[in-house]
Write a structure and sequence with these properties.
Helix content: 25-40%
Shape: globular
Structural class: alpha/beta
CATH superfamily: Glycosidases
Number of domains: 1
Distance between the termini: 33 Å
CATH architecture: Alpha-Beta Barrel
Radius of gyration: 20 Å
Number of strands: 11
Amino acid sequence: MKKTALLFLIVCFGLALGVVPNASANDSSKGFAFTDKVVLAYYYIWFNENNWIKTVAEGGRKEGLEGLHPLVGAYNSWDPTIIEKHMQQMNRALIDALAVSWWYDTKVNGPNHILDIVFEKAAAYNLKITIDYERGGAPLETINHDLFYFLNRYKNHPAMLKVEGCPVVMIWTAWAHKPAEWKGVFDRLEKTGIKAFPIMSGSYQNGRGKEYLGPFRSLEEYTLVDIEDCQLADFMKTMRGHIDDYNKTKGFKNSKPAQHHATISPGYDETKNPGRKTKNGGYKGAGWKDRTKFGVTYPDDPDGAYYRGTFEAAMSSKPDWLHISTFNELAEFSHIEATFEDGYKYIDLTAEFVRKFKGQE
């Protein structure tokens, strides 16, 4: 049988099973094309079983996790079996990639060790991995060291998230350094042979961050808690406008066009976290978004109303990528991870949104 005929049969069989092949999957070294639609979720690796089974006096975290019960059980983030179970949920949700919350730390069962396991397991589940680097406000010397470690270690890994051959790296609190300083960071990496695709995460609020386009290829707002529901669509469209304006004036001229990454979230509640004020909604206090409401309650979907509302607001801005905030930040109640309380409700809602985002239904 000719190769073309065999390929045709394979594709048809895959479509019959509901599997849609990625257009960029034929060349894993290149990763996604710039125009591919990608769905990325934040993934947290700092949990241990004490978060759920011990009181604060016994060494547990004072974050109200006693009210949540993941279907995988009270877990340690470094457990390979747990990571695989999470990835099975991510596959069910049709997620493409993970942004692993990470900082350089060599301790036993720490971030470096867990990140190795995440990369090892991801390839088997067709998931791509990057980091959300949590130390964007660190001294530049530290940043240079940490980003080189990450990118040099994983740049050729089959699970590395890439755009047109460039490994993706996300930076949290990047506003702590000037755009020119970040340009210097990425220029130094490029001199070592690493041409990255940097994303500025959680830093767009109220338009702050648009001056970072150039060093960064995208802006993103991690949490929507400080945005009124009725204003969220306009917020997303304004963000899209900044990206379009940049691309018209600079992006395509310097061969570094930017993308519009929009965030969706099932809810948010940090009122039980230590060091944060009681529920008052301000960014200096504890943020809170009711999962059952978006502006006014969706009468036919009271349990997933906020998630659906953020998705519709994001879609109104014609996003290039969707960011899910989050897969498992249970301490802030922004998780879609399956729990005994909600089952797979938010996992399956995510799959519905992904199909709509990619035009598959």
